[in-house]
Amino acid sequence: xxxxxxxxxxxxxxxxxxxxxxxxxxxxxxxxxxxxxxxxxxxxxxxxxxxxxxxxxxxxxxxxxxxxxxxxxxxxxxxxxxxxxxxxxxxxxxxxxxxxxxxxxxxxxxxxxxxxxxxxxxxxxxxxxxxxxxxxxxxxxxxxxxxxxxxxxxxxxxxxxxxxxxxxxxxxxxxxxxxxxxxxxxxxxxxxxxxxxxxxxxxxxxxxxxxxxxxxxxxxxxxxxxxxxxxxxxxxxxxxxxxxxxxxxxxxxxxxxxxxxxxxxxxxxxxxxxxxxxxxxxxxxxxxxxxxxxxxxxxxxxxxxxxxxxxxxxxxxxxxxxxxxxxxxxxxxxxxxxxxxxxxxxxxxxxxxxxxxxxxxxx
Length: 363
Ligand code: DOR
Ligand code: ZN
Hints:
The strands form 3 sheets. This protein has an 8-stranded parallel beta sheet with strand order 3-4-5-6-7-8-9-10. It has a single domain, classed as TIM Barrel, CATH 3.20.20. Residues 1-10 have low confidence and may be disordered. The protein has helices at 34-47, 64-77, 98-106, 135-144, 164-179, 193-201, 240-250, 268-271, 286-296, 303-315, and strands at residues 13-15, 18-22, 26-29, 50-53, 85-91, 110-115, 148-150, 185-187, 206-210, 257-259, 323-332, 337-339, 342-344, 352-362. Helix content is 31%, strand content 19%. The chain starts with 12 loop residues before the first strand and ends with a strand. Helix 1 (34-47) packs across helix 2 (64-77). It binds (4S)-2,6-dioxohexahydropyrimidine-4-carboxylic acid (DOR) and zinc ion. The site of zinc ion has 5 residues, from loops.
């Protein structure tokens, strides 16, 4: 679809207490597997038509066959009638075969590749130890136009955790883009003003996703009256001025910044532990959270482009045609979500949100 086609009207309409939007997509989400999958997939599929699904399972999704099987498990986990398209990604390793990526991409199984620096985050031990080892892969991705999705943090323990994203830009991403200037790159879940500026200055082949939580919390949220494991994610939230830079980028109207929740559920037990897992489960009220931020920034009229247009435009996918509604109706987010034996604490647990998503499509 051409750029011209993707600026179709109508824009979001805010008629008093109702906000009508073209159905959005989530360009970065963790749906997990097993018992967590049915909870996570359903909550994402309620709000979003499509989602870029992260491959950091155990074992990671490194082949087209594994991605197809995972896609089937996702669809099987949804209630009948949910209209949802999982867009699958390949997990890059030092040994990944470029032919496997290309054939999976040409067959429509893989939408993109995910670069996890080894040991940067959850289930990334099999990730890339040195981008120098995947030069042939990057060259192939550039040639075939397959997007590279990047977890942008260096991992050396001597580098302060709050500096890891900025140093990644300088030492890894800038050289990669110098060597492969045509590579399509999404810098995922950006957390710093440095990343905003980097993406703004790069060519149109470089974009970024912004999560709902990084628009709302800064690093103090992890230490608010005690240790707050549910505010811990990677990359960690940074200082308040970085959060403000993200807010300004999200509402700027630049097509380089679009919605990607990085919703990453872990059980309550795994979060509330001596070594708690990184990840914030924002899927249950993702759109409500973004809407609140955009409204606070006086930019509700820009939410639709950020949530529903800039992502498909970057990925060269058609815009969704159905619409969703949010109502201005206060809701209290539950302290915990339960399904069978599983207990998961959602983002905004126990807080009141001003908007409420209406759970059905309409024309
Ligand atoms: O907070 C995070 N959680 N960041 C990541 O990069 C991975 C994710 C997860 O899979 O739990
Ligand atoms: Zn993620």
